[in-house]
Amino acid sequence: MIVRILGEGQYDVADAALDRLNDLDGAVERAVEVGDETAFEAALAALLDGVRTVGVPHELDSLDESDLILPPADADIAQVRDLLGDEGLIPG
Fold this sequence. Notes:
This protein is α+β, with helices and mostly antiparallel strands. The protein is built from 3 helices and 4 strands; from the N terminus they run ββααββα. Helices cover 46% and strands 14% of the residues. α1 runs antiparallel to α2. The chain starts with a strand and ends in a 9-residue tail after the last helix.
């Protein structure tokens, strides 16, 4: 799976890592739901760090389409609220 972090680049992430990323995504979603800015910032940072940790940078010159697009590290809670679907940022 190819995951793009806006403003940063793409990462190849193994399907086996999605459960862990879904847990981190759930923390982002809960923080957005209650409007807790501090928890949101920590949860988003953890999610993006999780992608960077389990993922491998995708080839820079590749024109492959991203399977998932995540907000940039400096996104605010309102921007992420607009991106959230019924299943969070990471479906599954």
